[in-house]
């Protein structure tokens, strides 16, 4: 009986930290805190003093010390996705999803004025709906999501130069696509040469890297996280990640687990 109770306690602790659906994979990230945010429906982002909850049509700025709402963005938006801080501005993936034909663009948020404005338009993108935008190594990296079982195999990571000329396209490996169900890639960050990607609702991060040749990303590992999918971003204050729990309307702060 004692051994059984100990086992049940261990299982409950694993569930509390990372969710019960992905206990078969290694714990890669651990929850270190939360912040209530009604707008935490698509993604989260952070700078040193504030955290940002991203909803379809608005970005909300919260004081990370007090948890209080500071202000909300002004400007048109239909379907914002993940956000990425670059040179003092928040770059947000944006699309007209679920409308057809699919059109995507990047919007920028000035965190001082909270003005949301257009940065770059892809028009009717042949790759799908933009969900991730990143800048790394003098290039722009974008994930265009395609939804639906089988159809989501067309989800792609696309590299652009500084003039927005397409340089390369990679597809996601079958081991990742099969795990997405009918959903697609919702978030991602570059970390130590790897793309850490999230899906729509599973508490996992897919560790991926560019192949030495070919057009299929390499699947390094799937690790458990406290984020039930959606957009993630680097937390510059801790060096960890921020994400959301959509159901609980929370921003989640996480740090990397020791192996």
UniProtKB/TrEMBL annotation:
Organism name: Blastopirellula marina
InterPro entries xrefs: WD40/YVTN_repeat-like_dom_sf (IPR015943)
Gene Ontology molecular functions: endonuclease activity
Signal as UniProt keyword: yes
Protein's name in the database: Endonuclease
Signal peptide residues on this chain, from the entry's feature table: 1-19
Keywords linked to the UniProt accession: Endonuclease, Hydrolase, Nuclease, Signal
Keyword Lipoprotein part of the UniProt annotation: no
